[in-house]
Amino acid sequence: xxxxxxxxxxxxxxxxxxxxxxxxxxxxxxxxxxxxxxxxxxxxxxxxxxxxxxxxxxxxxxxxxxxxxxxxxxxxxxxxxxxxxxxxxxxxxxxxxxxxxxxxxxxxxxxxxxxxxxxxxxxxxxxxxxxxxxxxxxxxxxxxxxxxxxxxxxxxxxxxxxxxxxxxxxxxxxxxxxxxxxxxxxxxxxxxxxxxxxxxxxxxxxxxxxxxxxxxxxxxxxxxxxxxxxxxxxxxxxxxxxxxxxxxxxxxxxxxxxxxxxxxxxxxxxxxxxxxxxxxxxxx
Length: 284
Fold this sequence. Notes:
By secondary structure, the protein is α/β, with parallel strands linked by helices. It contains twelve helices and eight strands. One of its GO terms (molecular function) is isomerase activity.
């Protein structure tokens, strides 16, 4: 069984327990066993209350983030490492085992060119240090390939695998996202197979970031590819139903992704469970 997760943005723009808790009984009925916390501003997370929330509802937690635009892991890696420390602290305090997301760069920040050798070298040095810092806190560190419009550094599963092999840290994993894969990969089969040895987390997201099943993404091929590699980790719906202003620009989200926001949950979650079932996967 794969743990079925939900990214906060499907129901709220920030990790706001006053807004999230009233929805949890309904989400549990849909099989949700994990919540993803966007760490846009780590200092805003009430970690004690969040851990109590997770224990009460019996859900796992995984925080995620993208580095702020002002940071540069190549030119000023110390600043980026300093930014990660409060995020790692939040992970520990809420009982999470990992930090996911674009931990190597900034969402929406590109040069318009392929990454230079200097950029790749600098990113690898940074990830080596970041992984070491995470390991000191008994944490794993995810790297999420993003599409070419959001980053030029890591776009495909094979790109992430090569970075991990070069860095050599045993606590770095690949965090794939079907929205980005739909743009960058030759096929879901190719992308998941390339990432398989290091795959630790999966976002399932429609091609338009809206209601799963109401876009152009080939869900049958997606779920089959996940099943074929024997992936047993979490599978989390990410929909940009509600997006914080600090990240909306980088994601290029400026209009509603669903005509009725409730459909992301009420239609999308059952659809994903059914598509997974057809491929021999159980989400719960």
